[in-house]
Amino acid sequence: MNRVTQNLVLTLLGCAVLQISAFSTTYLNYVKPGFRPFLIGAGTVLVVLGVIGLLQAAGAKKGTEGRTDGRPLAPHHSDEHDRPGENTHGHPHGGPRVAWLLCLPVFAIFLIAPPALGSFAASRDDTPPPRDQPLSAFPPLAGDGPVDMPIGEFIGRAWDDDKKSLTGREVRLTGFVVPAKKKGQWYVTRMQLACCAADAFPLKVTVRGLQAPPADTWIEVTGTWIPQTFKKMPAGVVHPQLTGKSLTRIETPDEPYE
After folding, report:
1. Which residues pair with 243 in a beta bridge?
2. Digit-coded pLDDT (tens) for 68-115
3. Could you give the angle at the alpha carbon of 235 between the alpha carbons of 233 and 237, nearest 5°?
4. Which intervals carry biased composition (Basic and acidic residues) (predicted)?
5. CA 39, CA 36: separation in Å to the nearest integer?
6. pTM exceeds 0.85 for this model
């Protein structure tokens, strides 16, 4: 891979980063919103460096195009060390073909733009969400109608609120559908990020009483919490439950993670 190609790939990579961060919200499929300024900065630097490299390569090429002073070119003496693919000074032309793999992220972003994590990732990971709120840290629920609530907050109130503020209250949760192994139930799910999609883990609430839409369908589901009491805590991860009353299909939100 020569200098021109290297700088062209660098420029294209920078353009791809700017495309998903400065000119769209696609970056939210991969990282948290706070990373946007860093992505824009990194993309800008890559484009600037790539363009400068292309200009320098063009200038160097122009300066080596034939002599105009009438002097003859120095003769070339081949020897036994010359090999195909090497120039007259013994340096190899181009570079390893594997370097072209650097173009794959560019094509992926421009052509297919991988979506946010969905039911496949959520169904393969049952890691319990971290509990970062102490007991009794939840404020009372205001109003009389359904309360819009992040799934993470619902899980926290279901397990850690000693005042049982969810009792009898209608809530509205937004997430995507993940099928469950047990009949008559499914999960409304949202992935939560610590940093980026690589460390995402699912926040799941079991929905009962409503027919499950297709997997990965984004919905708003309204219902009431089902209190659970256990004489002995079952093994594995236990998800809080919701008696569903209604649901509405929605478009995938710009910010798919909590």
Report:
1. 208, 224
2. 554 555 555 545 444 544 454 544 544 556 556 666 766 666 666 677
3. 95
4. 62-89
5. 5
6. no
